[in-house]
Specification:
- Helices cover about 45% and strands about 20% of the residues.
- It starts with 6 loop residues before the first strand and ends in a 5-residue tail after the last helix.
- The protein is of the alpha/beta class.
- It contains twelve helices and nine strands.
- It folds into two domains: about 210 residues, Spore Coat Polysaccharide Biosynthesis Protein SpsA, Chain A; about 100 residues.
- Strand 1, helix 1 and strand 2 form a beta-alpha-beta unit.
- The radius of gyration is 21 Å and the shape is globular.
- Strands 1, 2, 3, 4, 5, 6, 7, 8 and 9 form a nine-stranded mixed beta sheet that branches.
- The longest helix is centred in the last third of the chain and has 22 residues.
């Protein structure tokens, strides 16, 4: 009987000594056993590196790479350059998987499917209820439709860990290094390389909510890297998928609006000067803007208001949220 394809599982590790055992138990306990598990200790100052070494002594499928701290993007890139598998998965080192995660997703990867994904469940515990995929609904899309759903943030979202990729679909695409935000620069380009993609509504990936994560900290200028990613995405669509440009422009303007909201709540006066220049420059790229009648009243209002006065609209939304008119 032919061996199943080797899956390389890439785990960047930094300051997760409290959660790492749960993560690695879920990976090594997969029903799909043909795994190469690359743990990249990103110069973690706690006991995480030692925990990685201990697990490598228990399971020959695990290889540990110790390196100087350079961020999750650099850690993932280091492992991608070392990966031997024809299929690639990423797991964040404070998260965990259903035991059937890789067996199920690999089964969705028919000959022309380059990416398969499941649903993420958010949790603050070690025992999120998940399913094994039995009876789940599966949506299969071509590249352009998957990118359209990606823009809408419905499925094929920016998160790499709930996905399984063909190595050839990733190709030479890599994460930016030194960024606070890196997934947004990576995901749309990899989706663009896939002939078809499969999405399952089975919840099989547990995304742990930790108070110290970047997205739970006060808004900072570095969060505006998300605008850089979506600006690059717009240029990519203009070149390769012109049918998606109008929708990408609308999403980019709304991202400018929501970024301004975050900046107004958290930044200093000096930082706001930088933020206004940055956000204003990106917003200018969205003109001319098509606002179809079928978008829905709220979305159409937000777009029209943001076009006229982006900062004023952001201030109004912040007030409405503060007095609990909006959430």
């Amino acid at each position: 009987m032919e061996n199943p394809p080797l899956i390389t599982v890439i785990v960047p590790v930094y300051r997760v000594e409290k959660y790492l055992d749960r993560c690695l138990t879920s990976i090594t306990g997969q029903t799909y056993e043909n795994l190469e598990i690359l743990l990249v200790d990103d110069g973690s100052p706690d006991a995480s590196g030692a925990i990685c070494d201990r697990w490598a002594g228990r399971d020959s499928r695990i290889r540990v790479i110790h390196k100087a701290n350079a961020g999750a993007g650099a850690a993932r890139n280091t492992a991608l350059d070392e990966a031997k598998g024809s299929l690639i998965g990423f797991v964040d080192s404070d998260d965990y998987l259903h035991p059937n995660f890789y067996h199920y997703l690999s089964g969705l990867m028919t000959e022309d499917v380059g990416i398969a994904e499941c649903v993420i469940g958010e949790t603050d515990s070690d025992d999120l209820p998940m399913t094994d995929g039995t009876g789940a609904n599966v949506l299969v899309c071509d590249t352009q439709e998957a990118l359209r759903l990606h823009i809408r943030d419905e499925v094929f979202r920016q998160t790499p860990p709930n996905k399984l990729y063909r190595a050839e679909t990733i190709g030479n695409i890599r994460f930016p290094e030194g960024n606070l935000i890196d997934d947004e620069f990576f995901t749309y380009r990899v989706i663009g390389n896939a002939k078809r993609l499969a999405h399952s509504d089975a919840c099989m990936y547990a995304y742990r909510q930790t108070p110290g994560s970047a997205m739970h900290k006060p808004y900072s200028l570095r969060r505006l890297q998300g605008l850089d990613a979506k600006t690059q995405r717009l240029a990519y669509f203009q070149k390769r998928f012109p049918g998606l440009v109008a929708e990408a422009k609308r999403d980019l303007l709304l991202t400018c609006l929501f970024s301004m909201q975050g900046c107004l709540k958290s930044l200093s006066l000096e930082e706001m000067t930088v933020a206004r220049q940055k956000i204003g420059g990106v917003a200018a790229l969205t003109t001319p803007l098509e606002i179809p009648e079928d978008l829905g009243i709220k979305r159409r209002w937000l777009l029209k208001a943001a076009q006229k006065n982006l900062e004023g609209t952001a201030k109004l939304l912040n007030v409405l949220i503060r007095i609990h008119v909006l959430n």
